Amino acid sequence: MTNINKLQKIATQIRRDIVRMVHAQQSGHPGGALGCADFFTLLYFDVLKHNPQKFSMEGKEEDMFFLSNGHLSAVWYSVLARSGYFPIEELKTFRCIDSRLQGHPATDKKLPGIRIASGSLGQGLSAACGAALGKKMNKDKNLVYCLCGDGEIQEGQIWEAAMFAPAKRIDNLIAVIDCNDKQIDGSVSNVLNLGNIKAKWEAFGWMVIEANGNNMSQLSISLNMAKTLTGKGLPILILMKTEMGMGVDFMMGTHKWHGVAPNDEQLAQALSQLDETLGDF
Amino acid sequence: MKQYETKEFKDTRSGFGAALHELGKINDNVIALCADLTGSLKMDAFAKDFPERFVQTGIAEANMMSVAAGLSITGKIPFAGTFANFATGRVYDQIRQSIAYSNKNVKICASHAGITLGEDGATHQILEDIGLMKMLPNMILINPCDYNQTYMATMAIAEYEGPVYLRFGRPKVPNFTNIDEKFEIGKAIVLKEGSDLSIFATGHLVWEAIEATKVLEEKGISVELINIHTIKPLDAQTILKSVAKTNAVVTAEEHMMNGGLGDSIAQLLVLEKPAPMEYVAINDTFGESGKPADLMKKYGLSAENIIAAAERVIKRKK
Q: Can you give the pLDDT at residue B107?
């Protein structure tokens, strides 16, 4: 089996996890999580240099990942568990009282893999800039990754960070924008049109790559290309096109599954489209 | 009270700047961040001598706070400086999520706090910052009274692991504390013992309270004067011990009455030992342009106001 095939199988199980987690509590955000399942799988099972069994906050001599759009917590928790940060059974506790798997990622209950809270949008890219600067100061050659949503970049703070990173020559940072053109109130272009975002980020001084976020082999090539562009004085941005709800036909092509849980019938319908490749939690 | 005489006037922000520079020499992990106010914050000496550890963020305070949080993840001790207004209200959500909730080792260094910012007027004179910051879980809140104490507080917070809000000011004020005096976070300092009345003062109002105490003593009122440099955590033990003796309280602060030091003490007393109490604070109004000393008088924050409050509370006690 090729590595890509393996990764695709993992991604399918992660999609099952997402749908089951959100269904169990009748609460959560399945759409964006499903859309980014391929990216998270590739990142945690192939790209990141990391140490899941021995998580350390400082992450010395490791790559780091920051999730700025924290409502994608379901996909993050699933990849963290499945890559060994914490027991897979703990996914059952998603959004439950006393759980370490808070609705949006948090550090107060010490869930391995999480370095900062996110959920209130727009802050993660700045935090990633800080961590990347810290790594440079520490002479740590590893990279910092950050995921933001396309709706999220309507937040002004994103553009403060967009200006900051090139000005400070933060070239150990790979930021990714999940371009699914969906946000709560509708399509991003209708809610608040972002205009030519490639030109905007390039004008701010970023090296911009466009990628297909739902094609594992193409996305792998794009992420590897991004890595080769690090260390050249500029931050890297990947505009990653995804389909919200990818993998579950009735959740695709609409913004309606941004923050809605499937009922029992919808769950069965969704799971019939997603093979249990690694065993359910 | 003789030991608190002073002829030297210095700004608390310079105490911060001098300590930050010293920290730069002794602790490689100390990083300074500033949003285009390096001179005003007295961070220029640090910036000059440790350029590789100074991060000029430009006029982008939200980014600065979250960048500081990110730096702390890699083991750095970021000191993020700007005016108190821009260090709290403007970036409340960044502090709340990225620093307080995430419990990051970030030192928020807030200069030009309160009405003594002076001529720039109410847009820049934040009088709500203590309230905003003390409501955040995990946040330590320190408001030192003079140059020396600001120096000592700055040194102390570098050793403490966790979020801190350090509040200081612009004008030159009497520098009267002993630079060798131990600064312990959360431990109030009894400046003078007394039996009729407890005065709890913080920041610039400590000096006003010293001046007031001299007058009150001449009038035959025995004042216990306590400097509350740490507003959170509050030194409940020292406060309750004092009030058990005096059963009368005046609080004094350069802040809104709502949500300030006075409210913290009132809450403690309501729960533990109710006693007559008067506030010296700003009562639900914005400030305005003017000389710091004139503003202190106009807005009721001078020694005379503390004396009047003391006399009122002594009457209520009887």
A: 98
